[in-house]
Each structure stands twice: as C-alpha cells, then as structure tokens.
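User: tokens in, sequence out, please.
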C-alpha cells in the first residue's frame, strides 16, 4: 500500500508537469516510474523491517493482544508518508525540486516556518494525511486481519511452520529491497537521474529518500566547513588576489556581478575540433616510456607524447579520483568532506566543459567503466551539460 501511495504522488507530479515532459519517449516515461519504485521500495522495506522481525519472532499468542500497537504503528506510518508526500507536492511547485538538503538548510528557520504556515494550506495537508491514514488502515484490516484464533493452529503445527517460512521470505525480500540493488553499491539519490530532463529526474527521485540520505550524510559529517579546517582570507583580500592573478590571463570586464569575469582572446578556428579527455584510474608514470618509465608499457601514449604536448609534472590538489574528475570538467577545487560531484547542490547549474561546448554546438558524452551511481556521477554529469552517460551496464 505504501508503494501505491508513493507511485500515486509520483503520478500526480507527472500529470502536473506534463508540458515539460513531452520530449520524453515512452521508454523514458516508464523508466521514470520504474526507477522511482526502486527508491520507494528502499524506504518502505526499511520502515517495515522491524514489524516483519517482530511478527517472525513473536509467538502467535502475542499477535492479538498487540494488535492495537501494530495498527498504531501502521497508522502512523501511513500518516507520515501521506503528510510528507502531500507537502512535497507544494515543495515541488515552489522550488522545482523534490524535498532535499534545503529542508535542513532552511526548514528550522523561524521566518521560513512562519512563511510556510501563511503560504501553505497546513491544516488541509494535515487533514488530508489523517483521512488518508484512516482509509489505509481500514483497507489494511480488510486485506490483512491480525485476528488469531485457535482454529488457525492445527495438528503437527504445519500452518505455523508455513507462516514462519512466509515471514522469512518477506524478511529476505525486505532486506534486499532496503539496499535497493543487487549490485556492488546500494542506491543513492543519483539513481533518479534517468534522462537529461531535470524535471523528469526530480519526479523519478524520492523526497523521503533524499531527506533521509542527506540527514545521514550530515550525521556522518560528510559536509565539513572549510573554515573549520584552515584559516581563510577575508573576502575582499581573496578577491583582490584573484583579480591580480587573472588580469595576467585576460582582460577583466568589470561589468558583471562576478568581479572575476574576464575576456580571453583566443585563436579562431574555422573547423571545430573533437575534444576527447581520457582519465585513467591509479595510472603510474613509472610505466610510461615517455617519462623514462621501466618497463615501458605505454607505446600508444608514448606516440601521442611525441606528437603533442607532454606535461611532465602534475601537482594534485585532491586525494581521490572524484576530486580529479570535478576539477577536470569544472575547474572546481577539492572541498573538505565529500567531493563536489556527490553534493546535492551540484546536481544542476554547474558550469562545466560540456556545458560550454554545447553552446558551440557540440554533442557531449561521458563514458564510465563502472556504475553510474558511484559517487553520484550519473546525476552530476547528466545535470550539468552532458547529453549522454554510458556506464558499465550499457557495455555489451
């Protein structure tokens, strides 16, 4: 029933934003709901795991006395899901996003809460959630009655055995679903990136999943404040230093809110060239012949080095591959904690090499030999200029 509720609200958002989704193929539309159901199943399975374990371990004689507790738990679950999803519709109308990190950045601000109370029909939302929870509880009692009588316990205990086997099977399914994937990595919010259409990706995602995932990241301290680690310059001094440095590389325009915008006059080319960037994980210069490596195992790289420009010295500002990738495509320096690519604020609106090339008519493509949900890469690249993301499952 919870999956039906989540899918119903996803269908509601899809209906409201239909004009912005007309470019999607039928396959993409179906994938939107399919991926969304995967994310929903993670939330549902984690919510009911405790109840499944209890029903598996508790003697049959406990079920009837604890029936009010089970119904109360179920009712609270229905109420919270309907309440959150209904509020999420209003959130989506205002921000064009599913509930996400913004809930933590602004959700506890007194002024924001006052604005929400005035602008949103809070009473109507709570009333709708209450009525919806009551209806769901009534349907639950009809579909899965919890009454246990002596007639259900037969000789040799076979019904009890089958009941426990069934609960073990449900426990197994819930355990698999709570991870969301049979692959090497569990699901994360980037799984919702199914197209280059940002609205479609947001509808495919799950607001509950987003909020709980961000809460977990904050609890683990994944997003550290730079000022807590190093002493930073005053803003005006840092700006003046950057302007002095950049002035030698172009003409500062001084006509933009950004004081660092500059005009760089490059050579004009009559024919656009193909741009190919090859990134190799953990590749060592000790095996590159052009860098006097021994044994020399890179004949093709050596050939390219002899025909082009070889940069012999590299200074790494980060320590992980993902920090190198974000620097490569967006010139963004590493931040404390998780990389920029994994941060929810970077899922759209980032200027990248791909977005700049698209302005000149280029088609852009990112190929990755692993799973796209790793470090949220698929969501970052599809949301910031890349037309297509090919990953491990797409290779034959």
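Assistant: Sequence out:
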């Amino acid at each position: 029933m919870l999956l039906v509720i989540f899918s119903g609200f996803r269908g509601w958002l899809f209906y409201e934003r239909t004009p912005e989704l007309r470019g999607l193929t039928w396959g993409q539309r179906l994938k939107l709901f399919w991926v969304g159901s995967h994310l929903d199943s993670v939330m549902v399975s984690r919510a009911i795991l405790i109840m499944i374990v209890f029903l598996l371990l508790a003697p049959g004689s406990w079920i009837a006395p604890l029936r009010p507790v089970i119904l109360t738990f179920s009712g609270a679950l229905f109420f919270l899901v309907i309440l959150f999803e209904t509020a999420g519709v209003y959130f989506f109308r205002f921000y064009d996003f599913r509930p996400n990190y913004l809930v933590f950045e602004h959700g506890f601000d007194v002024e924001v809460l006052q604005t929400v109370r005035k602008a949103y029909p809070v009473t109507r939302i709570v009333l709708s959630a209450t009525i919806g929870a009551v209806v769901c509880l009534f349907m639950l009692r009809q579909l899965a009655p919890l009454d246990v009588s002596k007639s259900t316990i037969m000789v040799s205990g076979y019904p009890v055995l089958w009941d426990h086997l069934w609960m073990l099977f449900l426990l197994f399914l819930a355990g698999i679903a709570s991870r969301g994937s049979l692959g090497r990595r569990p699901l994360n919010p980037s799984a919702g990136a199914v197209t280059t259409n940002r609205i479609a990706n947001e509808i495919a995602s799950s607001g509950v999943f987003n909020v709980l995932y961000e809460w977990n990241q904050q609890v683990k301290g994944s997003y550290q404040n730079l000022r807590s680690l190093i002493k930073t310059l005053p803003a005006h001094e840092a700006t003046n230093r950057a302007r002095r440095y950049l002035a030698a590389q172009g003409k500062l325009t001084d006509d933009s809110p950004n004081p660092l915008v500059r005009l760089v006059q490059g050579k004009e080319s009559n024919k656009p060239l193909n741009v190919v960037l090859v990134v190799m994980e953990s590749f060592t210069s000790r095996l590159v012949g052009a860098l006097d490596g021994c044994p020399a195992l890179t004949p093709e790289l050596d050939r390219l080095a002899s025909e082009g420009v070889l940069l012999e010295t590299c200074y790494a500002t980060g320590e992980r591959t993902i920090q190198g990738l974000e620097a490569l495509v967006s010139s963004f320096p590493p931040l404390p904690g998780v990389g920029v690519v994994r941060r929810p604020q970077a899922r759209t609106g980032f200027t990248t090499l791909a977005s700049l090339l698209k302005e000149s008519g280029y088609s852009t493509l990112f190929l990755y030999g692993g799973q796209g949900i790793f470090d949220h890469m698929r969501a970052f690249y599809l949301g910031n200029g890349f037309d297509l993301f090919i990953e491990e499952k797409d290779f034959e």
